[in-house]
Design brief:
By secondary structure, the protein is α/β, with parallel strands linked by helices. Helix 2 packs parallel to helix 3. Helix 3 links the parallel strand 6 and strand 7. It has 2 domains: 136 residues, Rossmann fold (3-Layer(aba) Sandwich); 56 residues, no CATH class. The protein is elongated. It starts with a strand and ends in an 11-residue tail after the last helix. The mean pLDDT is 95. The protein has 6 helices and 11 strands. Bound molecules: adenosine-5'-diphosphate (ADP) and ligand LXEULUCI. The site of adenosine-5'-diphosphate has 12 residues, from helix 1. Pfam families: TK (PF00265). Its EC number is 2.7.1.21. It catalyses: thymidine + ATP = dTMP + ADP + H(+).
């Protein structure tokens, strides 16, 4: 039975790496995958991991129809034994419905990867639809850590080095950016709620929040 699996976690927890590993393991056994992404930091039509690995992918912009693309590919004699879809938080709910249809009507496994919530702790529409439709939700096992040592569960956005809670939902970017750039930092819920990034914690070094990690 084919499945729609949603692999999720914070930024920088290894989702793209896992996507590339799944692709590697399956293609090494002669299976053929169809790889999609949207707005990867490395550019259009690339699925990249911070470990330095990357592969070509089909860019799934707004209006792209996953189901129609797969049907056209198969009708033209192409093969697709599984689908990998990275940065799935950026997909529209309709596109996630199309991925579910790929599973149900074409009987192809779909492995989707994405962050669940944005910098305001709100669900991305694509992630919400994946949570609603997935056969299985897998939270990544390699924990990203907050500066305090707790498991990071939330994504913070920083502008000019300060955490912000207002702005456009989508701003492509990375962790560990220079202070003047828009950047991201993963935090535990407590420090996200208190808007305490690593830099803010350093600045408030006398706060009990910055007791050393045990
Ligand atoms: N220099 C490094 N050495 C070892 N592991 C690294 C290094 N840089 C990044 N990583 C690993 O890569 C992970 C990020 O992987 P990536 O697939 O790009 O994340 P995601 O897609 O979830 O944002 C980090 O959590 C870390 O485990
Ligand atoms: C929290 C948050 C993130 N983004 C962007 C930033 C990155 O380009 C991607 C996440 O990529 P990763 O491979 O999981 O690190 O999402 C955003 O646009 N809005 C946000 O609120």
């Amino acid at each position: 039975m084919s499945e729609l699996v949603y692999f999720c976690g914070t930024m920088d927890c290894g989702k793209s790496t896992l996507a590339l590993q799944i692709e590697h393991n399956r293609s090494a056994r002669g299976l053929r995958g169809m790889i999609f992404t949207r707005d990867d930091r490395a550019g259009s039509g690339v699925l990249s991991s911070r470990l330095g690995l990357f592969t070509k992918a089909v860019e799934a912009a707004d209006g792209f129809d996953f189901y129609a693309h797969l049907v056209a590919h198969l009708s033209g004699g192409g093969r697709a034994d599984y689908v990998i879809a990275d940065e799935a938080q950026f997909f529209t709910p309709d596109q996630v419905d199309q991925l579910a249809r790929v599973v149900d009507d074409l009987e192809i496994d779909v492995f989707a990867f994405g962050i669940t919530t944005d910098f305001r702790t709100r669900l991305f529409p694509g992630s919400q639809r994946l949570v609603e439709l997935a056969d299985r939700i897998e939270v990544l096992q390699v924990e990203a850590l907050c500066w305090c040592g707790a498991r990071a569960t939330h994504n913070a956005r920083t502008v000019g080095g300060r955490m912000v809670v207002e702005g456009a939902q989508v701003v492509v970017g990375d962790v560990n950016q220079a202070e003047h750039e828009v950047g991201y930092e993963v935090l535990c819920r407590r420090h996200h709620t208190r808007r305490m990034t690593a830099a803010a914690a350093r600045a408030a070094a006398l706060s009990p929040d910055v007791l050393p990690v045990e």
